[in-house]
Structures are given as C-alpha cells and as structure tokens.
Amino acid sequence: MALLHVGFFSDELGMSVSMDVILPQKSYKLIGMETEDSKDKYPTVYLLHGWSDDHTIWQRRTSIERYASDLGVAVVMPTVGLSFYCDMVHGPKYWKFISEELPVICRRFFPNMSDRREDTFVAGLSMGGYGAFKLALSRPDIFSKAASLSGVLDLTMFREKFRDQEFWYWDNIFSADDKITGTDNDLFTLAERLKKSGKEFPELYMWCGTEDEFVYDCNLSAERQFTKLGVPFTYEESSGTHDWARWDEKINYVLKKFLGR
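Structure (tokenized):
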C-alpha cells in the first residue's frame, strides 16, 4: 500500500487543507502484507473522523492500512475540524467542501480511483458517522453505501441531552436557535426527501455499542425513525462503549461488507 499525506488548496474553504490517502500497491515482496490485485480502477471509501480528531486518527488508532490492503480498496481521510460536516453559520463551508469539491479533487489527483457510484462508499465514527449518512442521503449519485459507527445520528436529541454542557462550537455551526429538525442538517428530513424523490437509495449500515452512554440513545432513535419512514437500513448493536477497540474491529467488518466479502 502507498500512504500519501496530501496538502492542497480548497477553493470552497479558501485555505489549504490536509488529507491522508491510502492507495493499493501490489507487491510480492512486502513482508506481512498482501494486496488484492485489481485490474480495474480502485473502489474507494471516504473515511470520516470524529469531533476530537483529524485526518490522521484512523491510522493512529486502527489497522486501516492493513485492512485496505487485504481488500484492494483506496481510502480517503479528510479533515473538517469541529464542523459536523456542515456549512457553518459562523465558519467555513465544510459541507460544500466534503460533498462537492473533495470527490472531484480526489478523482483528479488519483485517476485510478473509480468514479462509479457502485465503487464509492463512505464511513465514519461519532461525528463522522453523522457525516457519512449525511453524504449518502444527500449525494446518492456519488455514494452507494454508508456506514455509521457510534454515530451522532439524531442531532436534536444529542443537543438536548448535552444542553447543560458548554459546547462552544455548536452556535458557530448550527446557529443559536438550535433548529435542526426539518433542515438540510437533519438526517431524517434528508431520508424522507430522498425516499419521495424515487432515486436509488444508498445501502445504510449503523452500529453502536450498548454501553455507549454518549450516543446509544441517538442510534435507537435513528432506528425508530428510519423504520417509520420505511427507509432501508441495517442496524446492529453489541457490547461496547465509545472506544477505538470496537471501531477498529468494526471498520474491518464494514470494508468487507461494502465489497461483498
């Protein structure tokens, strides 16, 4: 595998940003690693970080490079700061960056990345789980599958639960009135809108640990609301908290699931 640290300028953000990219590299001499050979362009997963992290975190906390090598999949890991993958009310337009600009840039920089919908996936944890579902539900023309691991899937519930805590960035992202329901930042509104459009629905997978006091209730709420809307999805839960041991295990499972292995 090749690991690239990429610094580039974003027109949408008006500043230089970073992403790390893993690309398949077939080698018969690399000790302890095997790479799935691909005669076609690489399938690609956009892998999103949580709110305390950046584009390096998946490499630092998991064996993502080894998992990607085994499957012959490219991995794009961007950074979006504390933005919840949104166009911030007081701050950069990270949603336009992640949903419109980044896929075009990646395919231009790395022409062996497939541009086919069926080969393009997104996954994330916590804040990134929300971002993954938001991308898939808003841009089903790009992303065919999405996975949320311990995702903040019900933003309204999450905000109410932690209202007494000082989340200084919240007003900068969403505005002081806290209005989420019915907006483009509400996953359930996006799901309902997409269902009514008749467009092909992305495959959605969500997992959460049953001891995750941070977001478990948000995932149960998402399960109920997606079911009520008649949205196709898979929900799984098992023992676990908001921790990297589980996310390391689950991202390997998710990649195999995406690729039908």
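The two ends are 19 Å apart (CA to CA). The mean pLDDT is 93.
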